[in-house]
Design goal:
2 domains, about 80% helix, 11 helices, Arc Repressor Mutant, subunit A
């Protein structure tokens, strides 16, 4: 996983994964703009998981699978989405990705049953299950509340206050280097220097976790 994505994921978790359960409930209860925003936020996760499992299939088939996943997530008053609980150690994105992969396997199984005997070539659903077990997604190792909290403690020990501010401004508040420099009252090169230091701390942290 690219280092910048790691940073963004850690920052997203540290910024308040616990509030996402309430966000899901409000979006499902109120619908409208809130629900559209939730779908827009989670759609890339669903598409990525479908593409990961069905990479060799046609775009049209993958799109059908994406829609099936969303039907499963939103049906029965969003029962599947309401099952998200950050106390179980996943972010909302990690939880939805896990659910999406399960439904992709179920969807493949249904497609096989419908097409059996028709000559269509479908990946064996059992093979997808074996692949999922043998090749866990690296996001699952990163997007956990406990790991993000550990990363936060690592940064607090490794960086002075200005480094922590740069992290917050760039990876939680999503400011550009120029905007972060302006907010801190420093030159842009200073922000770049801290960004380089932060990336080094991420590498060190992940290496320690893998050891």
């Amino acid at each position: 996983m690219p280092l910048l994505l790691c940073l963004a994921l850690f920052a997203a978790v540290l910024a308040g994964a616990a509030g996402d359960a309430a966000l899901v409930a409000r979006a499902l209860d109120r619908g409208g703009r809130l629900l559209r925003q939730l779908v827009e936020r989670l759609m890339p996760v669903v598409r990525a998981r479908v593409r990961r499992r069905l990479g060799g299939w046609s775009p049209a088939v993958r799109e059908d699978a994406v829609q099936e996943v969303w039907l499963a997530l939103l049906s029965d008053d969003g029962k599947a989405l309401r099952g998200f609980d950050p106390k179980h150690g996943r972010t909302l994105e990690g939880f939805v990705g896990m659910v999406a992969e399960r439904h992709v396997i179920d969807w493949v199984r249904r497609q096989q049953a419908a097409k059996r005997g028709g000559g269509a070539q479908f990946t064996d659903a059992r093979a997808l299950e074996r692949r999922a077990a043998a090749a866990p997604d690296p996001e699952d190792a990163l997007m956990t509340v406990d790991l993000a909290a550990a990363f936060g403690r690592h940064l607090e020990q490794a960086l002075p206050e200005i480094g922590l501010l740069v992290f917050r401004l760039m990876y939680t508040d999503r400011l550009t280097p120029a905007s972060a420099a302006e907010a801190l009252g420093v030159k842009k090169q200073v922000v770049y220097n801290w960004q380089h230091r932060i990336r080094g701390e991420v590498r060190a942290f992940l290496a320690a976790q893998a050891a």
